[in-house]
Each structure stands twice: as C-alpha cells, then as structure tokens.
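Lecture notes, part 5. Sequence design as translation. It can be helpful to think of inverse folding as translation between two languages: the language of shapes and the language of residues. The source text, in structure tokens, appears below.
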C-alpha cells in the first residue's frame, strides 16, 4: 500500500534528522509547498520541531531544518494497544470503565467552584500529555486538547474520543458536547463544550 506524503516525511525524518524543506522535497519528489504544508501541521501537532544542523551549511542565512521531537521515538505502545483491542469482547464498555478508573485518580470535591474544577481537570489531563486548557465561551466553558495521546490509532479506533468525553463528564459531573475531534481531516485540536446546565 502506498504511503501518504505525511508518512513519507515522518519516515525520512526518522532516518535523516535536521532536514531542510529542499532536502525533503528532493528526496521525496514532492513540491516545497507540499512539504511546508505537512511540516506546518506536524509542528502544530508537536511531532516536528525546528532544529540546528550539526554542520555549518555555508555562507548566508542557513535554511530552516526540521527533526522529529524526542517523544516520537519513545516506544511502540500504540502497536501493542492495537493488538490488545482486538481481544476485547466489548471495546466500548471496556473503554468507559477505563475512563472511570482513570478519573478516580483525580481528587475532586463537590464543594469546589467551577473554575477550580476546570483548572484541576486541566492539570490532571496535562499530566497525561493532552496539552489542555480551557476558555470561557458564551454557551459555557470549552476545553481544548492541543494533543491527543491516542492520535496514532484514533482513525481506526474513534472510541478513544468517547473515553475522553466520559472522563470529562465524570470529572465535572455534567454533560458535554464534542465540538471538534482530532479524528477529523486536518484537525489540530479537540474541543469539548461544557454544559453545566441543560441547553
């Protein structure tokens, strides 16, 4: 099966870090505009960062080089997780139970006000690499995930979105509305509308 441009870029950067747009374009036979487009998305996702080449590139302003973030090399847990999911008789129910177990690790008190609850939830999520924050909106607070820990498998296993929704609902004791997901094409964030009161 032919790999996508994104996959080709990631594969090349694995073996050839500190690569410029020109070197990527030449090696992969893609236009520089295509390379820049994918590099920009990968930077927004926190997968690619600008880097400094170890060897000088000559006179004048050096071209910008790019490398994968250290975390991208971390492990193959996503592959193991995919295999484990195949053995679950009721994947949706299992992920719901997992969300319940995870959120128990967050100390919470019904006496806390909304702002403290949201701040505590964001702190809990950020310890798990969601890069979360929340903003005030007309229809209620919106939580943003700028990273999805399950991004690599989300396309084939969208149930992980529901697990996150379940965690947020249980942490705050309210219903939520999923406004945007990483599973959508070219999406760079996840947005969850908090509904403390019925709309």
């Amino acid at each position: 099966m032919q790999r996508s441009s994104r996959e080709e870029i990631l594969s090349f950067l694995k073996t050839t870090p500190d690569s410029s747009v020109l070197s990527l374009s030449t090696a992969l036979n893609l236009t520089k505009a295509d390379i820049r487009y994918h590099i920009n998305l990968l930077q927004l996702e926190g997968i690619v960062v600008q880097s400094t080449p170890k060897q000088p590139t000559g006179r004048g302003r050096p071209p910008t080089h790019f490398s994968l973030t250290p975390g991208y090399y971390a492990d193959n847990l996503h592959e193991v997780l995919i295999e484990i999911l195949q053995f679950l008789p009721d994947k949706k129910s299992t992920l719901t139970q997992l969300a319940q177990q995870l959120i128990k690790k967050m100390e919470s008190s019904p006496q806390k006000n909304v702002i403290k609850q949201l701040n505590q939830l964001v702190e809990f999520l950020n310890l798990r690499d969601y890069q979360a924050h929340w903003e005030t909106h007309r229809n209620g607070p919106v939580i943003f995930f700028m990273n999805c820990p399950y991004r690599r498998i989300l396309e084939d296993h969208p149930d992980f979105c529901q697990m996150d929704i379940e965690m947020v609902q249980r942490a705050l004791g309210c219903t939520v509305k999923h406004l945007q997901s990483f599973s959508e094409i070219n999406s760079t964030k996840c947005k969850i509308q908090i509904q403390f009161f019925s709309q």
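The translated text above is only one of many valid answers, since several sequences can fold into similar shapes. The two ends are 46 Å apart (CA to CA).
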